[in-house]
Amino acid sequence: MRKISDSILLGFAAGMLGALPGRLLNKVEFKFGLTDSRYKEMAAIPFVKKGT
User: Fold this and answer.
1) 34 half-sphere exposure, CB direction, 13 A CA radius
2) Is residue 2 part of a domain?
3) What is the rounded distance in angstroms from the CA atom of residue 18 to the CA atom of residue 23?
4) Is this structure's pTM higher than 0.70?
5) 2-40 pLDDT, tens per residue?
6) Is residue 34 part of a domain?
7) Into how many domains does the chain fold?
8) Which domain holds residue 29?
9) Is residue 52 part of a domain?
10) Does residue 19 form part of some domain?
11) Exposure of 39 by Cβ count < 10 A (0-12 exposed, 13-18 middle, 19+ buried)?
Protein backbone atom coordinates (compact mmCIF):
# COMPACT_ATOMS: atom_id res chain seq x y z
CA MET A 1 0.00 0.00 0.00
CA ARG A 2 1.33 3.41 -0.97
CA LYS A 3 1.57 6.07 1.75
CA ILE A 4 0.66 9.73 1.25
CA SER A 5 3.81 11.77 1.85
CA ASP A 6 2.20 15.20 1.34
CA SER A 7 0.89 16.34 4.73
CA ILE A 8 -1.53 18.87 3.22
CA LEU A 9 -3.15 16.25 1.00
CA LEU A 10 -3.24 13.79 3.87
CA GLY A 11 -4.97 16.34 6.13
CA PHE A 12 -7.49 17.16 3.41
CA ALA A 13 -8.29 13.49 2.78
CA ALA A 14 -8.58 12.71 6.50
CA GLY A 15 -10.82 15.72 7.07
CA MET A 16 -13.15 14.78 4.24
CA LEU A 17 -13.40 11.15 5.36
CA GLY A 18 -13.89 12.17 8.98
CA ALA A 19 -16.62 14.73 8.26
CA LEU A 20 -18.66 12.55 5.92
CA PRO A 21 -20.35 10.34 8.55
CA GLY A 22 -21.36 13.36 10.62
CA ARG A 23 -22.86 15.15 7.63
CA LEU A 24 -24.79 12.06 6.58
CA LEU A 25 -26.07 11.50 10.12
CA ASN A 26 -27.22 15.13 10.34
CA LYS A 27 -29.06 14.76 7.03
CA VAL A 28 -30.90 11.66 8.28
CA GLU A 29 -31.71 13.31 11.62
CA PHE A 30 -33.16 16.35 9.84
CA LYS A 31 -35.18 14.18 7.47
CA PHE A 32 -36.82 12.31 10.37
CA GLY A 33 -37.39 15.48 12.40
CA LEU A 34 -34.93 14.65 15.17
CA THR A 35 -33.20 18.01 14.77
CA ASP A 36 -34.44 21.35 13.50
CA SER A 37 -31.21 22.64 11.97
CA ARG A 38 -28.57 21.50 9.52
CA TYR A 39 -24.81 21.90 9.83
CA LYS A 40 -24.55 24.16 6.79
CA GLU A 41 -27.21 26.47 8.22
CA MET A 42 -25.42 26.65 11.57
CA ALA A 43 -22.13 27.37 9.83
CA ALA A 44 -23.67 30.22 7.81
CA ILE A 45 -25.25 32.03 10.77
CA PRO A 46 -22.19 34.23 11.59
CA PHE A 47 -21.96 35.42 7.98
CA VAL A 48 -25.61 36.17 7.15
CA LYS A 49 -27.66 39.04 8.54
CA LYS A 50 -30.80 38.14 10.43
CA GLY A 51 -33.92 38.33 8.26
CA THR A 52 -32.07 37.93 4.98
Assistant:
1) 7
2) no
3) 10
4) no
5) 887 899 999 999 999 999 999 999 999 999 999 988 888
6) yes
7) 1
8) 7-47
9) no
10) yes
11) middle
